[in-house]
Amino acid sequence: MSGQQEILNALRAAAPKLEVVDAAEAVAAKSHDYWMRSLLQRRMGVTQRGLAVARPSTTAEVSSVLTWARKTKTSVVPFGLGSGVVGGVLPERDQLVLDMSAMDKITSINDNSLTVTVQAGMRGSTFEEQLNAKGFTMGHFPQSIALSTVGGWCATRASGQHSTLYGNIENMLLGCEIVLPGGQVITLPSVPRSAAGPDLRHIFMGAEGVLGVFTELTYRIHPLPETQKGRAYAFADLAAPIEVLRKTLRAGWTPSVTRLYDSREAGRNFAGVAAEGSSVLLVLSEGPSARVEAELEAIAALVKEHRGTDHGDEPVKSWIDHRNDVPTFESLLDQGLVADTIEIAASWEKLVPLWEAVVERGSALDGMLVVSGHISHSYTQGANIYFTFAGAKEEMADRLKLYDQAWDTILDATHEHGGTIAHHHGIGRMRKEWLKKELGGAHDLLVALKRAFDPDNIMNPGALLDA
Questions:
Q1: Domains detected in the chain
Q2: Are the C-beta atoms of 58 and 4 separated by less than 8 Å?
Q3: pLDDT beneath 70: ranges in the chain
Q4: What was the pLDDT predicted at 277?
Q5: Nearest 5 degrees, angle CA 323-CA 326-CA 328?
Q6: pLDDT, position 467
Q7: Rounded CA gap, 214 and 62, in Å?
Q8: Tens digits of per-residue pLDDT, 41-82?
Q9: Cα(first)–Cα(last) distance of the chain, in Å?
Q10: What pLDDT sits at residue 275?
Q11: pLDDT digits over 298-348, tens only?
Q12: Do the beta carbons of residue 91 and residue 160 sit within 8 Å?
């Protein structure tokens, strides 16, 4: 019997009801996320597979896995549904994949206090559908909602398309249950607000599984909105609609969706609205009817002030119907293309020069076909930019080179212009070096936290940071 089989048999003995799968094909399917770079490498013949997949159905089983992991010095890579796009999941041959998807139930809904408690492996779209059936919404709609888990949202500090009204995941999480490296289970209580020391939830949010595993979460929820209305506007440039967004948020209005497309993306997505060179702004407001009407009226006045043109609600309805219809990376590679998205954020005054620098530098790369961007999340202090690039090279190795050049170019420009290198996709492996640049001396504190929580570097090694 091999040493690896002995280790797996020890796991089965420690948790007799735990599902453990070591068939090569089944393990390989859960040994990567949706990172374009790892897909390119697999197309080039690089194989990637973990030791086995463990599929717990209870917190106790997760605890047993992490207890066994420390005793056997076996690394564990948490896995939700594999929707990550920056390489947060990439286990080696001696590392166990911890598949959380069997922990997929809502355990309670509190109508009085508007909270829901849910197991971490539940699929996002199923979760929202079950809330809707009872008259509620969480208001969290990432593009990956049908491909991601409610626990993965916290592990990566996710953001949804309706964040301008409902907030991001850190605004929604009230309490949680977490299993630490070594198997200890801790519960952070669900309360409206607390000053009981530092907020420990934020140590684990965005940690991508390197400090522990979320097993249960309590989130804020909301009654389904009474009314939902939207408008689309076209502008001659980017600066004017950015001012409309800034003044909207400054005045205290919070439409649920604020999306501003530059001329390249407007031309691809809203050709019937945008004249050549125009940008397009979509606004969606929801809630009590009186508030929605007042909010849209106020925004319309700002649009008029900045010489935008009203194109009605049909573009917004079209966006709602097709917002998650995007080509797969596999289909793009089949066409000879390499593409990806990179989401960053910056304060209002930095957005236009940063945007222009990214488009200019990225477009100059050999083989690059298009670099474009849109704003999808707005705040009183600034907004994100969600950049998309696509290039063409005949050889797969050349596509990989162009891919890395595009990331280097966009994140270097973001850092130079004072933006943050990640808005909602996390760090994974793709952004580790820029995380060091952004955090500076604080990066050492993050490494110290990792070493304190996980001295054997068992939890998701290689993701987020190198310890």
A1: 3-101 (3.30.43.10), 106-223 (3.30.465.10), 227-322 (3.30.70.3450), 329-430 (3.30.300.330)
A2: no
A3: 1
A4: 76
A5: 155
A6: 85
A7: 10
A8: 999 999 889 999 999 999 999 999 999 999 999 999 999 999
A9: 33
A10: 73
A11: 999 999 999 999 999 999 999 999 998 889 999 999 999 999 999 999 999
A12: no
Helices 239-250, 348-363: axis angle to 10 degrees equals: 150
Predicted confidence at residue 181, as pLDDT, reads 98
DSSP 380: S
pLDDT at 1: 56
3-state helix/strand/coil string of 310-356: ECCCHHHHHHHHHCCCCCCHHHHHHCCEEEEEEEEEEEHHHHHHHHH
Cα→Cα distances 227→279, 284, 286, 429, Å: 27, 10, 5, 42
**What per-residue confidence (pLDDT) applies to 251?**
98
Q: What token pair was written down for 41?
A: 């490498």
Task: Provide the token pair at 324.
Answer: 């998650």
Beta-carbon-side half-sphere exposure of residue 11 (alpha carbons within 13 Å): 33
How far apart, in whole angstroms, are the C-alpha atoms of residue 140 and residue 138? 5
Helices within 143-288 (DSSP H only)? 150-156, 163-166, 169-172, 201-204, 239-250, 263-269
Q: Please give the Cα distance from 174 to 213 (Å, whole number).
A: 16
What is the C-alpha to C-alpha distance for residues 31 and 207, in angstroms, rounded to an integer?
A: 19
What's the token pair of residue 93? 């041959």
Q: Tally Cβ neighbours within 10 Å of residue 6.
A: 10
List the structure tokens of 11. 């796991």
- Quote helix, strand, coil % in the chain, to nearest 5: 40, 25, 40
Yes or no: say if 74 and 95 are a contact pair by the CB < 8 Å rule: yes
CA-wise closest residue to 263 among 241, 296, 230: 241
Q: Are 361 and 409 in contact (CB under 8 A)?
A: yes
